[in-house]
């Protein structure tokens, strides 16, 4: 009986130390985890992400113990179960590492996290230099924060006023052109009116009746002038 043999062996003989060992590291990082420095920048965020993923994978694979497999498959020899367990862990580990590596590549996580390391390093360098031209938020006074907000509001008001001013200038040009056109029309009408008045004065001084041409001209001016006045 396979189950009896397996149980008897487990009671009569001590299990192998390597079969009862738990917490053994089974996951390996796809990328090197050592901290790299370049130009004074310490790149730690991507390696930290790798370590976190490796730790999560290791904790997950640790749950697959020989004891649990014996509870699920009591009819199978412990040596066989241990072999299956190791093979299963190895397959899961390789697939998980491949999936993580693919995610890192597709989302370009290494470049993005390295860029973040550079930004943080640059900020720390500027803070350590105590450059007076650099404004650090932890040293800003409340009134300075309020003043900065007021500056933004003032700039917004200036932009709005400038836009309104440009609109007024545009409409002013249009009105000036219209006024010039009307002024030229009035001047032309005045000149024509002066001519008619002069002709009327001549008729009045000579006490003569106007001829047909002069009369028609007066009627035409009166009609056109009335329409223009409307």
Automatic annotation (TrEMBL):
Main location: nucleus
Region (Disordered): 1-37
Keywords recorded for this protein, A-Z: Cell cycle, Cell division, Centromere, Chromosome, Kinetochore, Mitosis, Nucleus
Species assigned in the record: Dekkera bruxellensis (Brettanomyces custersii)
Pfam families given in the database record: Nnf1 (PF03980)
Single GO biological process annotation from the record: chromosome segregation
Protein known as: Uncharacterized protein
GO cellular component, one term: nucleus
Amino acid composition bias (Basic residues), ranges on this chain: 18-36
Keyword check for Flavoprotein: no
Subcellular location: Chromosome, Centromere, Kinetochore; Nucleus
């Amino acid at each position: 009986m396979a189950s009896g043999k397996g149980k008897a062996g487990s009671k009569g003989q001590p299990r192998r130390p390597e079969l009862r060992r738990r917490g053994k590291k089974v996951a390996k990082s796809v990328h090197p985890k050592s901290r790299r420095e370049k130009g004074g920048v310490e790149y730690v965020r991507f390696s930290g992400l790798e370590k976190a993923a490796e730790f999560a994978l290791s904790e997950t694979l640790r749950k697959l113990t020989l004891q649990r497999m014996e509870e699920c498959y009591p009819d199978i020899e412990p040596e066989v179960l241990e072999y299956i367990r190791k093979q299963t862990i190895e397959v899961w580990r390789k697939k998980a590492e491949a999936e993580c590596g693919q995610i890192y590549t597709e989302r370009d996580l290494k470049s993005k996290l390295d860029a973040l390391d550079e930004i943080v390093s640059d900020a720390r360098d500027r803070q350590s230099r105590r450059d007076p031209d650099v404004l650090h938020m932890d040293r800003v006074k409340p009134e300075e924060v309020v003043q900065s907000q007021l500056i933004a509001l003032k700039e917004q008001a200036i932009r709005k006023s400038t836009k309104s001013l440009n609109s007024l200038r545009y409409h002013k040009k249009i009105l000036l052109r219209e006024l010039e056109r009307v002024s030229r029309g009035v001047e032309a009408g005045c000149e024509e009116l002066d001519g008619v008045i002069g002709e009327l004065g001549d008729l009045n001084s000579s006490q003569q009746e106007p001829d047909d041409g002069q009369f028609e001209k007066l009627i035409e001016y009166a009609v056109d002038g009335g329409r223009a006045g409307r």
